[in-house]
Amino acid sequence: MGVLSLAIWTPIAFGALLLMFSGDKYAGLSRWLALVGSLAGLVATFPLMAGFVPGTADMQFVEKVSWIDTFHIFYHVGVDGISFWFVPLTAFITVIVVIASWQSITSRVNQYMSAFLILSGIMIGVFCALDGMLFYVFFEGTLIPMYLIIGVWGGPRKIYAAFKFFLYTLLGSLLMLIAMLYLYNEAGGSFDIAAWHAVPLSAHAQTMLFFAFVAAFSVKIPMWPVHTWLPDVHVEAPTGGSAVLAAIMLKLGAYGFLRFSLPIAPDASREWAWLMITLSLIAVIYVGLVAMVQKDMKKLVAYSSVAHMGFVTLGFFIFNDLGVSGGIAQMIAHGFVSAAMFLSIGVLYDRLHTRDIADYGGVVNTMPNFAAFALLFFMANCGLPGTAGFVGEWMVILAAVKSNFWIGMAAATALIWGAAYSLWMFKRVYLGAPGNANVRAMLDIGRREFLVLALLAVAILAMGLYPKPVTDVTDASVAQLLKHVAMSKLN
Amino acid sequence: MIDNISWLAIYPEVVLLVMACVIALVDLAVNSPRRTATYLLTMLTLAVVAVLQGVYASSGNTFYGFGNMIVSDAMGNWLKCFAAVALMVTLVYGRPYAGDRDMLRGGELFTLSMFSLLGMFIMIGGNNFLVIYLGLELLTLSSYALVALRRDDPVATEAAMKYFVLGAMASGFLLYGLSMLYGATGSLDIGEVFKAVNAGQIRHQVLVFGLVFIVAGLAFKMGAVPFHMWVPDVYEGAPTVITLLIAGAPKLAAFAIVMRLLVDGLLPLAIDWQQMLAVLAIGSILVGNLAAIAQTNLKRMLAYSTISQMGFVLLGLMSGVVNGNVDAATVQAAYSASMFYVVTYVLTTLATFGVIMLLARSGFESDKITDMAGLNQRSPLFAGILAVCLFSMAGVPPLVGFYAKLSVLQALVASGETPYIVLAVFAVMMSLIGAFYYLRVVKVMYFDAPVQTAPIQAPLDVRVVLTLNGALLFVLGLLPGGLMALCSGAILRSLAS
Questions:
Q1: For A137, which of B397, B429, B488 is closest by C-beta distance?
Q2: Which residues span the domain enclosing B204?
Q3: Is the peptide bond before A222 cis (omega within 30 degrees of 0)?
Q4: B424 vs A71: CB contact, 8 Å cut-off?
Q5: Do B428 and A178 touch (CB under 8 A)?
Q6: What pLDDT sits at residue B497?
Q7: Is the preceding omega at residue A225 within 30 degrees of 0, hence cis?
Q8: Which residue of chain B comes nearest to A73, CA vs CA?
Q9: pTM to 2 decimals?
Q10: What integer is the mean pLDDT of A250-273?
Q11: Residues A8 and A124: beta-carbon distance below 8 Å
C-alpha cells in the first residue's frame, strides 16, 4: 500500500472500526479512538510532506491499480502541486474537529466521530484521484456522511438543511456524471484525467462540458447564485460539520475547476471567463454586503465564506499564475480561517446555546483569552497582512489589476466589506460592557478549547508570515496548467 | 430418442421438480409449526441446484437440448444460479415472518416457491416460444397462489385477484403476439424465427403487429408503465415474504425472457422495439419516481421504486442497437449493463425486504415508512444495512446501485446519438427525484426518535444472512468489477452462439 493510500484509508479504517462501538457506554472510548484515528491519519500524511518534491509539475506518489476492468477504471491516485497541500490540511482539520467535538457531542458519539473520519478519508481521496470515475465516487461519497452529520446532530431545522444539502449538490454532480461519460467515450474508453486533458474537443462539446462541470463545482464552492444552500446548512449543522464543510468541502469544487474545467475545456474556459469573473465579483461584493446584515453569527460567516470563495474562482479565471496560485493559497488559508471562525462560534454556542449576535456583547470581559484568539481569527478573515487570509487575497487582487484594472479595483473593495462585516460583528459580540446576565456568567475557554484554537492560530500566523512553502509547491504545477490552458484544444 | 446432452441441459430442473414433489409429500409427515424439516430439505435442494447452475455457468458452454427447445448458456445459467440463491435468501428471511402468520402450515410456501423457481428456470432456459410461455405460466400461476396464501386476509386476497386477472390478460397478450409471429414465420423456434425475420421476406406490418403484443406482455411482467398498475397493489397487499418472492428472483427471469424474445429472436426488428422500450422506460422512470414520493407505505413506495428501476433496465436494453447497426461491442455493453442492473437490483431488494420482515412481528407488519423511525437507535447494524440498500437504489456512490446506473448511462452515452444522451440526462434528473424519497426513509431511520421500542427479535440465521447480504452490497460497491465482468462475459458467450 502506497503512501497516499495510507493517507486515504487510515481514517476510513478507524471510522469503520468506530462503528462497532455503539451505545453510550462506549462514548469515552469512541472519543479516544477517534482521536487516535485522526492523529494516525495526520501522521500518515507526514511521509508525503517529507517526500514531496517541489519544482516539478509531475504527479507524485502515484499508485495505479486496475479497479473495474469492464470500464477501464483504475484506482489511480497521485498528488501534484495543486492538490498536495489539501491532503495534510484535511487530516489536520479532522484532528481539530475531533478535539473540538469532545464534549459538545453526547449522543451516538461513535457514529459522529466515525462519520468525520470516513469523510476525511473520502475528501483526501477526492484531492488525490487521477481517474475520473474514482474522483466522482469520492466526490459523491462525501454526501452520505455529511447528510447524516447534519441530519442527526444538527439544529432545529436540520432535516430541511440535510435534504437541501444532499439534493442541491447531487443535482450538480449528476450533470457532471454525464459529462464524464461523454469524455470517456471521446477519449476512446478511458477515465484517465490526463487523457481527458489531451483529448481534442469541438467548441460546442467544450461549452457543454464546461457548463456541466460548472454545474457540479459551482454548487459545491458555492458560487453566486447557487450559494443559497450554504447558509441554511451552516446554520443547522453541528459546529464540527460547519468547520469541515467550510474548510474542506467547499474546496472540492474549486479544486475541480483546476483539475477538470480549465484543462479539459480550455477554449470554453477562456470564452466564458467573463461570466465566471462576473459571478465571482458578484459573490465578492454583493454577498459580502449580504454578510454584513446577518443577525446570526454562523450565517454571517457562511456568507463570508461565499465571498472568500469568490476570490478563489476570480483568481482561477484571470489565467495568470499569480491569480491561480493566489486562488490556491486562498483556499488553504480559508481552510484554516473558516474552521477557526466556526469553531469560535461553537465555543460561544456551547455556553449560551444561541447564535444570535444580539444575545452577546462584551464577551471580552468574561472570556479574555478567547477574545484574543477571536480577534486574530477575525483579522485573518478580513485579510490583515501577517495572517493567512492576506496572502491569497493580495495575490488575486494583484493578478486582477494586472489583467484589468477595474476588475482588480472591484475585487479590492471586498477587503473593505470583509473588514466591515468582520469588525462590526467583533464589536457587537466581544467589545463593550457585558450585554446581559448570561454573558456575565460565561467561563473562559478550557485547556481543550485553548489547544484547538491555539493550533489554528499558529497555522494562520505561520501561513501569513511565511507562505513560501505553499507557493513553492504550487508554482510548477500552476505554470504547467496555465501553459496547457493557453493552448487550444479545438479539433 | 432423447440424447444425453438434452438431459444434461435440464439436470438442475429435474432435480428441482423431483425434490419439489418429494418435499410436498415429506411435509405431510412434518407436524412442527416451523416446518424445520421441510425448510432444511428445501434449502438443501436449492443449494444443490444453485451449485449445479453455477458449475454449468462457469464452464461457459452453450448447448441446446430437446431439438433446440432448451438452451443452456452462460447468461441463462448465471441467472438461474442467482435466482436459486435469491429464493434461498428469501426463504431464510421469510420463514420467521411466515411462521408468525401461520403461513407455513401445509408447506405450500416451500413447494409453491420451488415450482415458481422451476418456472423461472424454464423461462430462462427456453429457446422456443411455447417453452418460454409454459415457464412463464408455471411461474405466474405459482405466484397467484402464493399471494393468496393467507386466505383469511382480505387485502392479500384482493391483491391476488388483481394479480391474477391482469396477469392472465398479459399472458393472453403475449401468447397472441407469439401466435402472430408463428403465423408470419412458420416457426416457434427462436433461432428459426430470427433467420426468417432477418431474411426480410416477411411483411413488416405483420411482424410489428405481433411485436406490439409481445412487448406489452413483457412490459406487464416487468411492471413497466403503463402496464404497472398491479405492482403497487400486489406489493402492498401480499404478505411481505410473498412480495419478496415476486419482487426478487422473478425479475431475473423477466430480464431473461426479454433477452430471449427480443434480442435472440427479434433483433432484426430492433428499431421497432427500441422505440417501444424507450416509451416504456421513460414512462416507468417518470411515473415510478413521481408516484413514490407520495407513498406512506414502505412496500408501496418500493413498488414504485421498482417500476423506476425497471425503467433503467429497459433503457439499457434499448441502447444496444444504434440506428439499426448491430455492433457486437455495443450490444454486449448495453445488455450486460442491464443484466448487472437487474442482478444488483435483486440483491438490494432482498436486503431491503429482509429488514422489513425482520422488524415485523405477529400482528405488526412494519410496512409503514414511519415504522422505521429511530431504527438507528434500536439497531445500528440493521439501520446501516437498510441505509446501504436505500442509498444504493438512489444511485449514490460508492454503493453498487451507482455502478448499475453508471453502466446503463454509459450504454446510452456511448451511442453518441443526441436523443440517447438526452435520455441519459432525463434519467439522471429523475434519479435526483428518486434520491428524495429514498433519503426520506433514511431520515426517518436516523433523524427521528424511535416509536417502536420492542427489542428486535430475529433468529440467528436471519441475522447472519442479512448481515452477509448487506456486507456483499457494500463490498460490491467498493469492488464491482468482478460481477460486471461476469455479466459482460456471460452476455458475450450467450450472444456469440
A1: B397
A2: 4-496
A3: yes
A4: no
A5: yes
A6: 61
A7: yes
A8: B481
A9: 0.91
A10: 90
A11: yes
Of A67, A136, A175, nearest to B397 by CB-CB distance is A136
Residues of chain A with Cβ-Cβ distance to B443 below 8 Å are: 151, 159, 162-163
Residue A356: beta bridge partners? A296
Q: What is the ipTM of this complex?
A: 0.88
Query: What is the percent of chain B with per-residue pLDDT over 90, rounded to a whole number?
Result: 42
Cβ separation A147–B442 shorter than 8 A: yes
- pLDDT above 80 for B378: yes
pLDDT tens string B114-172: 999 999 999 999 999 999 999 999 999 999 999 988 888 888 889 999 999 999 999 99
> Is residue A448 predicted with pLDDT exceeding 60?
yes
Q: At what angle do helices B230-237 and B154-185 cross, to 10 degrees?
A: 140
Of the candidates A140, A34, A47, the one whose C-alpha atom is nearest the C-alpha of residue B395 is A140
> For A69-80, what is the mean pLDDT?
89
Which of A139, A152, A174, A176 is the mutation pick for testing B, counting most B CBs within 10 A? A174
User: Taking CB atoms and an 8 Å cutoff, what residues of chain B touch A175?
Assistant: 425, 428
Contact residues on chain B for A158, CB-CB shorter than 8 A: 447
Contact A185 B480 (CB under 8 A): no
Greater confidence (A23 vs A43) lies with A43
- Classify A83 as helix, strand or coil: coil
Residue from A20, A139, A177 to probe the interface with B (highest B Cβ count within 10 Å): A177
B391 chain-A contacts, CB cut-off 8 A = 144
Q: How many domains does chain B have?
A: 1
Mean pLDDT of chain B: 89
Q: What is the pLDDT of residues A145-190, one digit of tens each?
A: 988 888 888 778 888 888 888 888 888 888 888 899 889 988 888 8
Q: Which residue of A has its CA nearest to B418?
A: A182
Average pLDDT in the B274-281 region? 91
Using a CB–CB cutoff of 8 Å, tell me whether A185 touches chain B: yes
Q: Which residues contact A356 (CB under 8 A, 6 or more apart)?
A: A295, A296, A297
What are the residues whose beta carbons fall under 8 Å from the beta carbon of B178, sequence distance 6 or more? B129, B130, B133, B188, B210, B214
B455 to chain A, closest Cα gap in Å: 15
The reply to whether A111 touches chain B by the CB within 8 Å rule is yes
The A residues from 124 to 183 touching B (CB cutoff 8 Å) are 133, 136-137, 140-141, 143-144, 147-148, 151-152, 158-159, 162-163, 166-167, 170-171, 174-175, 177-178, 181-182
Residue B363 scores a pLDDT above 80: no
Distance from the A183 Cα atom to the nearest Cα atom in chain B, whole angstroms: 10
CB contact under 8 A, A174 and B398: no
In this predicted structure, the answer to whether residue A34 has a pLDDT above a threshold of 80 is yes
Size of interface A-B (CB pairs under 8 A): 97
Q: How close B288 gets to chain A, by Cα (Å)? A: 18
Average pLDDT over residues B82-92: 94
